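Appendix B. One record, verbatim.
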Amino acid sequence: MGDAGGKTGTLYVVATPIGNLDDMTGRSVATLRSVQLIAAEDTRLTGRLCAHYAIDTPMVPYHEHNEVRQTAMLLDRLRAGEDVAVVSDAGTPLISDPGFRLVSAARDARLDVVPVPGPCAAVAALSAAGLASHRFHFEGFLPAKPGARRRRLEQLRETPETMIFYESVHRIQDTLADMCDVLGAERQAALARELTKLHETIRRDTLGGIVQWVAADPWQRKGEHVILVEGAAESDDGEGERVLDILCEQLPVSQAAELAAKITGAARNRLYRLALRKTRNGDGGN
């Protein structure tokens, strides 16, 4: 812990419950009690959490609208020897929540940053979804506007890892419909809603099946959602790679991948990534 004798303070990144208050760890409680200041995304929500655990540490708001100003203030407090904890509304800070600017600035200033791990909605959903978990791609929130959202999904269509998204109650139906159209109705997926809360539901089905389920049951459109979608199947067809290798000897990577995809029917994005990897490894290409 910091003191006033010249030692700088420590920034603690503290995870808090995403619903069930019993998920608060003993270390998290002890840390929030021991620091001199808590930087909270919403002081009202964190205030209720602190009241539940008899934590009376002073709080300041730290969110996307004031983080530039508050980062400078918090760094000054840390340099002065005070310990500071940063918390989000729920779950682990920085995971689709504020905190990155502060942690990055603290690292740049050579201040100590210590994680106090705990709940994370993305990891909780992945652990219970029944989809491949050895590799995953965390996307967070997709763009709110339909055109931008569909374009981003197009870019993710050939991603081989399980994809994890967050979505709000207001856009859950539209986002699921776009995923069904762009990624394919037969793609395996899971929808986790209100994790750790009273009305928690986790359903695994095809994207098409989940779209129908949510459309038929308004209750499933309420609350906070985590959407998980299986990654694209890795092709075991060597013809695309063989043609790609030949074309890369004469053409730039992008053109070679596009032409190889047209010739063989293999996925252009997969061939492009493969060509880049070969180029970096010195296996060929321009």
